[in-house]
Amino acid sequence: MPLNVRPVVPSRLKRRGHESNRAPQSVVAGYIALTKPRIIELLLITTVPTMVVAEGGWPSLWLILITLVGGSLAAGGANAINMYIDRDIDALMERTKNRPLVTGLISPRNALIFAISLEVVAFGILWAGANFLAACLALSATLFYVFVYSLWLKRNSTQNIVIGGAAGAVPVLVGWAAVTNSLSWTPWLLFLLIFLWTPPHFWALAIRHKDDYSAAGVPMLPSVATPEKVIASMIRYTIALVAASLVVIPVAEMKWVYGVSAVVLGGVFLWGTIALGRRQTPGAAMKLFSFSISYISLLFVALTVDVFIR
Prior knowledge:
Order of helices and strands: HHHHHHHHHHHHHHH
GO molecular function: protoheme IX farnesyltransferase activity
Largest sheet: none
Strand content: under 5%
Protein name: Protoheme IX farnesyltransferase
InterPro entries: Protohaem_IX_farnesylTrfase, UbiA_prenyltransferase, UbiA_prenylTrfase_CS, UbiA_sf
Distance between the termini: 29 Å
Keywords: Cell membrane, Heme biosynthesis, Membrane, Transferase, Transmembrane, Transmembrane helix
Pfam families: UbiA
């Protein structure tokens, strides 16, 4: 599929990337914006299919609801803490200058209290409604995102999004643990999928906003490396991603629906990444970014469908 064909992605995700850059107009909207709801949507896309694979069918709707609510609150709390930490550099970036802590709509103190409260409630919901393992995994993702990515890697290493992206892969572990109260090779392999998908996905967005990262002094790879090096890195991760997606077939005992989807979607993603190297424009980068969302969404939908066609 050529990149000039509009991919199927959630409409609210495809224009601005992970979040809107419009300033919230009310305090309530400001608190919602602190949680970065569009990132949460993307995380939850991978959670329910993982639960279906773990169950071998539909888990109870109550368990799905509890896991989604708990996971959303945990992710929202982590995102709010990230905004608290990054409020200084957010003021320097065009994409983030209208965030509620930058505009003064919400005070840093209130934002931090809000974020920690979300984490406490999320842990309680997951522990009471699912199990202790799921609650601990969700908390571990927050701790990793805050202390490893936000406080350490983001401002100090070009590997920031590579290593830090592990936090965004934890929801599949939470979903699996919520169903089985354990972990096996399959959820760890799905974790690896998200981990490998994150660099080419986010670097495509970072190509579009590399001037922002340069202005803020954040060493995101596209803002500090040559375009050739960035594309080469994206291609390597995409190849590894496609390979890992195929390993899922024997490990999770997937059949033809997932298998065909993994091959076709992976081939298009790889082709699009290579094509971006030939035409590195902000528009082309955002089209690949949008398709990367379609890729991970459709791949996990295929996982779900495959369970029910056996």
